[in-house]
Amino acid sequence: MRTRRTIAPYLFVLPCVLMLAVFVYMPLIQNFFYSFQNISLLSGKSSFAGFDNYKTLFSDPVVGKALINNVKYAVISLIFQVGFGLVLAAILEEEFLRKVSAVFRTIFFIPVIISITVICLLFSFVYNPTDGLLNMFLQAVGLDSWAKPWLGSGTTAIYAVIAVSQWQSIGYCMMLFIVAIQKIPRDLYEAAKIDGAGKIKIFFSITLPQVKEMIFVNSLLTITGAFMVFNEPFILTKGGGPGTSSITIAVLMYQNGFVRDSMGYAATISLLIFAITAVLALIQTLSFRTGKGD
Amino acid sequence: MAGKLSIYRLIVLLPLLVGVVLVVYPLFWMVSSSFKSYDEIFGSVWNLPSEWLFSNYVTAWTKGIGNYFMNSVIVTVSTIAGVVIIASLCAYGLSRFRFRYSKTLFLFVLGGMMLDPQVCLVPLYKLLQNLNIHNTYFALILPYIAFRLSIAVLLIRSYFLGIPKEIEESATMDGCSVFRTYLSIFLPMSLPIIMTTIILTSYYAWNEFLFSIIFIDSDKYRTIPAGLMNFKDALSTDWGVLLAGLVISSMPLIILFIFMQKYFIQGMSDGSVKG
């Protein structure tokens, strides 16, 4: 460690601090001020609004609807990405799959790498009511009555959208779990086998407790992701349709800011998103050092 | 796979194979249909193309994807360069010096990780307009860099901390300046973590969607994620060409992943950051 030079370290740190200050922290603070204003980009006018935006936020029924959709997103993602992701990882780390598990791993991980735009456009083909893969498959196996306009019906749209996210992201959680499982000392498994423990017993008594930190990290990441989800409803259901049945809080923010031109209200909504995600991030930071140090 | 196929293995393998089909089939369909004509995409859904229309790819490239692709390359490469340079400088300053505000500054940098880009969307949009860089490459590059710095600094700093002090001391004895030590000792020694940073950054910059649809208005500067939306509208029903566009858009990262799998996984587990 050098201690004598005093200005050098500041010079090294300066560009980074500047970038963060200008493009991350300053907008965050401005958001706060914007939330007390009426701002129109088209007319370029802005005026003081007091707590109007906040009143709108708490009385807007769509906000509640969006938040419920975000909660649905979070719950289903926890089950599929964290739950099934862990089971998938445990299976792929099984002895008898050792030789082929790399292939499986790559296959399940490929959707993670593909841009969500590509995936959403692809799934708009899959969900197409008349010519879509899903309905054609259902008809081919004789389940004609199950075929429906998945994205066009208010009851199924949000679940169809959520399904696409599970399809894409399960591989991500799986990969993190595989990394965690590989760190478990092998002799724990050997000892359990000698004791005659069955596969399921081993999973619950060794694998599960040994990866509980990763379960926590994955859960928080998944919940955070669920409260920020934007791309899937924006592309698949053209901004949360039909009506507002598949809207999420981020889509609502976008629509208010960039479609309805009420930037002040959009800023207020983004403060709500900030509040939710900041709490989650704080929990993560306070509990663990982000996946490191385990 | 030699060995007995016990009931347990069957119970495990069956859902696994179903899962593989669920993941692979839509992708397979995308690739095979991208070589088909419109009639065949919906007329013979389950079959391979009767005639492989490579022309779909040429059309996709010349009708817009080529332009978006080059924009994405420009934006991604610039973002990577910015992140690697700025983050490694900062990591060096934070890890090799003991100075008064080092802890505070480190927390300041880390705090950026807690903030999601969409939280800053409205003010950022106005800021870019005020800076007169809205609808230019910089409208994407600068925010992309800023939002990737925190994680990059965290990764590089912890790597720098692992480099033995003796190496640095001997460099100083040889008369290396502080900056020289950073440039010719620390950077080359940290190649693995720099690779990880490059891959995480390119993954983000290539796929980012929200900023790219809002901060860019003209087709000239659109990157792939936003461009694809326009491409789709412009094509109306030319599905084969659209699907070819989707395949082209996904290729760079898939190729990168296949060759750099180790760094991909390393980066994602070290950072545990989604998207």
TrEMBL record, chain A:
Annotated Gene Ontology cellular component terms: plasma membrane
The alphabetized list of GO BP terms reads: transmembrane transport
Q: Which SUPFAM superfamilies match?
A: MetI-like (SSF161098)
Supply the InterPro entries for this chain: ABC_transporter_permease (IPR051393), MetI-like (IPR000515), MetI-like_sf (IPR035906)
Membrane topology of this protein: Multi-pass membrane protein
Keywords for this protein: Cell membrane, Membrane, Transmembrane, Transmembrane helix, Transport
Tell where it localizes.
Cell membrane
Does Membrane count among this protein's keywords? yes
According to its UniProt record, where is this protein mainly located? membrane
Q: Which residues cross the membrane?
A: 7-28, 73-92, 104-127, 157-181, 202-230, 263-283
Keyword Aminoacyl-tRNA synthetase on this protein?
A: no
Segments forming domain ABC transmembrane type-1? 67-284
Q: What's this protein's family per the entry?
A: Belongs to the binding-protein-dependent transport system permease family.
The protein in question is named ABC transporter permease
UniProtKB/TrEMBL annotation, chain B:
Q: Which UniProt keywords apply?
A: Cell membrane, Membrane, Transmembrane, Transmembrane helix, Transport
Coiled-coil-forming residues are none
User: Key word Metal-binding present in the record?
Assistant: no
Query: Which locations, inside or outside the cell, does it occupy?
Result: Cell membrane
Q: Which residues form the ABC transmembrane type-1 domain?
A: 69-260
Q: Tell me the GO BP annotations in alphabetical order.
A: transmembrane transport
Question: Which Gene Ontology terms of cellular component type are present?
Answer: plasma membrane
List the Pfam families hit by this protein, alphabetically: BPD_transp_1
* Record membrane topology: Multi-pass membrane protein
TM annotation in the entry:
7-28, 68-92, 104-125, 137-160, 181-206, 239-259
Family the UniProt entry places it in? Belongs to the binding-protein-dependent transport system permease family.
Annotated protein name in UniProt? ABC transporter permease
Q: Which organism is it from?
A: Paenibacillus jilunlii
